[in-house]
Amino acid sequence: MSDLLLPPELRYAKMIEQRQNEDGSELAILNLGPTHPATHGIFQNILLMDGERILDGEGTVGYIHRAFEKIAENRPFYQITPLTDRMNYCSSPINNMGWWMTLEKALDIEVPKRVQYLRVIIMELARIADHIICNSVLGVDTGALTGFLYVFQYREKIYEIYEEICGARLTTNMGRIGGFERDWSPAAFKKINDFLEEFPAIWTEFENLLSRNRIFMDRTINVGPISAEKAMSYGFTGPNLRAAGIDYDVRVMKPYSSYEDFEFDVPVGQSGDTYDRFCVRNAEVWESLKIIKQALEKLPEGPFHANVPDYYLPPKEDVYNNMEALIYHFKIVMGEVPVPKTEVYHAVEGGNGELGFYLITDGSRTPYRLHFRRPCFIYYQAFNDMVKGQMLSDAIATLSSLNVIAGELDA
Amino acid sequence: MALETTVIEDKLTEKFGDKVFGFVDIKDMFSFEVEAASANDVLRFLKEDAVLRFNFLTDVCGVHYPDNEVERQFAVVYHLHNWMDNVRIRIKAFLNGENPEIDSATNLYLGANWQERETYDFYGIIFKGHPQLKRILNMDEMTVFPMRKEYPMEDGGRTDKDDRFFGRKPDNVNNN
């Protein structure tokens, strides 16, 4: 049996004894997590330490595993959206929209241009919210609480926009097959415009606070670096991959929801260290703002949902007053809708990377198999490789700059 | 010049003959099947060939088909992506239902490690040559592979929930 299959504490006990016999030094095992304020989520790392330096580590994940894939096999399509909310809960609208687009691809539904643009707006707002959290929390972990409290007001403003659109804040369950549940209100647009007006100044200030800050730079440059080749082999996507210097972005490689209509740059870093990840996310916030502005300018008039009565819930007034609408309402809610037998893979650029949905249907009311390609899960396996030989405090900064969201990691 | 799917098909059939088959385009994705025994060679060829260049392993997952014949009851599905030509492909390897085994892809892609552990954890598919094939999301003490279709989602003995009217099978209700 390979040593790696043993629980890490047993493996490390051997190594500790070996070192003791060699040169008398004392290694120690440190249990970081599962509930530790600096891990921002529930995952455990058992680290073998030589003083402050990490020699080896093993992560244990799965503490908040909720069997989403199994549940999804037992639920009609509409009831799966709330599951997607709870994966990357820092940017749930991206997950929701990704799921609708997967279904639309499976059902061959063409979505009106207005819906596509509205989706782009909400997804980019979600990306900003996601990056706000990651970067400001990185500040907290390196000792700067101010920036975090300052920009968090604007995350709150984004949540108010969500609220105006769908009524929920964190786990949004936003949208329907083919569009949105209702057209966006003037109040929603006003809130978006206010946000676009106020936020740039705040974000500039936040950037100024950290990006050339001596302490912050010392704490992040060359901390937890990863080379481009390794990042690629480990399956990195999103800002973490781009920080290593590869300009892979699903929005550009395979534009969905009309991303091809907008001008934006894909920021890349160089060394793949914590500082580069911070800078890439900062720059992406500006790109997202650019995209939102363009989408608002070019926003076409038109319906806010596709004309697909088989899948799109009829208006409530009709449900109460009209027999057919009531029947459709019931059928859709219970999942009795026609579904072809097919296989689809659809990917969107989530806050952390390529969020993929692999759906196999067999013609019944539930998916035969639904697999979520969760970027966090795939790149978190590189963590121990990245922190080997680094200091403990650097491991904390690395973890927070990777933006590992426990909900997405564990599904 | 983008990489045409016909080129992929030709190159693979030339090299592997009838070990790769079932080429089909489903919803923008070029898919095919591969014999489990040569899956690792095919993945290596796809990655290292100068024309094909499938440099990125997007996803590995398992599927359970309990209604198929014994030889095809499990499938391991790989999604590969060529970033230079921007082509995605899907590869399926069907495995024996009683003894599902396939070579690990960890020798080609580091990222396969946890994804294969996850597939093992939920389906019990053995990845030969995997450095650390143990459970990842479920607890180590677990004895079953929960994503297999024979395991119902809920405890069959539950009596507080009656789902008959909602189109579900009344597994959890005593109908007598």
UniProtKB/TrEMBL annotation, chain A:
<keyword id="KW-0472">Membrane</keyword>
<dbReference type="GO" id="GO:0051287">
    <property type="term" value="F:NAD binding"/>
</dbReference>
<dbReference type="GO" id="GO:0050136">
    <property type="term" value="F:NADH dehydrogenase (quinone) (non-electrogenic) activity"/>
</dbReference>
<feature type="domain" description="NADH-quinone oxidoreductase subunit D">
    <location>
        <begin position="141"/>
        <end position="410"/>
    </location>
</feature>
<comment type="function">
    <text>NDH-1 shuttles electrons from NADH, via FMN and iron-sulfur (Fe-S) centers, to quinones in the respiratory chain. The immediate electron acceptor for the enzyme in this species is believed to be ubiquinone. Couples the redox reaction to proton translocation (for every two electrons transferred, four hydrogen ions are translocated across the cytoplasmic membrane), and thus conserves the redox energy in a proton gradient.</text>
</comment>
<dbReference type="GO" id="GO:0005886">
    <property type="term" value="C:plasma membrane"/>
</dbReference>
<dbReference type="InterPro" id="IPR029014">
    <property type="entry name" value="NiFe-Hase_large"/>
</dbReference>
<dbReference type="InterPro" id="IPR022885">
    <property type="entry name" value="NDH1_su_D/H"/>
</dbReference>
<keyword id="KW-0874">Quinone</keyword>
<keyword id="KW-0560">Oxidoreductase</keyword>
<keyword id="KW-0813">Transport</keyword>
<comment type="function">
    <text>NDH-1 shuttles electrons from NADH, via FMN and iron-sulfur (Fe-S) centers, to quinones in the respiratory chain. The immediate electron acceptor for the enzyme in this species is believed to be a menaquinone. Couples the redox reaction to proton translocation (for every two electrons transferred, four hydrogen ions are translocated across the cytoplasmic membrane), and thus conserves the redox energy in a proton gradient.</text>
</comment>
<comment type="subunit">
    <text>NDH-1 is composed of 14 different subunits. Subunits NuoB, C, D, E, F, and G constitute the peripheral sector of the complex.</text>
</comment>
<comment type="similarity">
    <text>Belongs to the complex I 49 kDa subunit family.</text>
</comment>
<dbReference type="InterPro" id="IPR014029">
    <property type="entry name" value="NADH_UbQ_OxRdtase_49kDa_CS"/>
</dbReference>
<keyword id="KW-1003">Cell membrane</keyword>
<dbReference type="Pfam" id="PF00346">
    <property type="entry name" value="Complex1_49kDa"/>
</dbReference>
<protein>
    <recommendedName>
        <fullName>NADH-quinone oxidoreductase subunit D</fullName>
        <ecNumber>7.1.1.-</ecNumber>
    </recommendedName>
</protein>
<dbReference type="InterPro" id="IPR001135">
    <property type="entry name" value="NADH_Q_OxRdtase_suD"/>
</dbReference>
<keyword id="KW-0520">NAD</keyword>
<keyword id="KW-1278">Translocase</keyword>
<dbReference type="GO" id="GO:0048038">
    <property type="term" value="F:quinone binding"/>
</dbReference>
UniProtKB/TrEMBL annotation, chain B:
<dbReference type="InterPro" id="IPR020396">
    <property type="entry name" value="NADH_UbQ_OxRdtase_CS"/>
</dbReference>
<keyword id="KW-0813">Transport</keyword>
<comment type="similarity">
    <text>Belongs to the complex I 30 kDa subunit family.</text>
</comment>
<comment type="subunit">
    <text>NDH-1 is composed of 14 different subunits. Subunits NuoB, C, D, E, F, and G constitute the peripheral sector of the complex.</text>
</comment>
<dbReference type="InterPro" id="IPR010218">
    <property type="entry name" value="NADH_DH_suC"/>
</dbReference>
<keyword id="KW-1278">Translocase</keyword>
<dbReference type="GO" id="GO:0050136">
    <property type="term" value="F:NADH dehydrogenase (quinone) (non-electrogenic) activity"/>
</dbReference>
<keyword id="KW-0472">Membrane</keyword>
<comment type="function">
    <text>NDH-1 shuttles electrons from NADH, via FMN and iron-sulfur (Fe-S) centers, to quinones in the respiratory chain. The immediate electron acceptor for the enzyme in this species is believed to be a menaquinone. Couples the redox reaction to proton translocation (for every two electrons transferred, four hydrogen ions are translocated across the cytoplasmic membrane), and thus conserves the redox energy in a proton gradient.</text>
</comment>
<dbReference type="GO" id="GO:0008137">
    <property type="term" value="F:NADH dehydrogenase (ubiquinone) activity"/>
</dbReference>
<feature type="domain" description="NADH:ubiquinone oxidoreductase 30kDa subunit">
    <location>
        <begin position="33"/>
        <end position="154"/>
    </location>
</feature>
<protein>
    <recommendedName>
        <fullName>NADH-quinone oxidoreductase subunit C</fullName>
        <ecNumber>7.1.1.-</ecNumber>
    </recommendedName>
</protein>
<keyword id="KW-0874">Quinone</keyword>
<dbReference type="GO" id="GO:0048038">
    <property type="term" value="F:quinone binding"/>
</dbReference>
<keyword id="KW-1003">Cell membrane</keyword>
<dbReference type="InterPro" id="IPR037232">
    <property type="entry name" value="NADH_quin_OxRdtase_su_C/D-like"/>
</dbReference>
<feature type="region of interest" description="Disordered">
    <location>
        <begin position="151"/>
        <end position="176"/>
    </location>
</feature>
<keyword id="KW-0520">NAD</keyword>
<dbReference type="GO" id="GO:0005886">
    <property type="term" value="C:plasma membrane"/>
</dbReference>
<dbReference type="InterPro" id="IPR001268">
    <property type="entry name" value="NADH_UbQ_OxRdtase_30kDa_su"/>
</dbReference>
<dbReference type="Pfam" id="PF00329">
    <property type="entry name" value="Complex1_30kDa"/>
</dbReference>
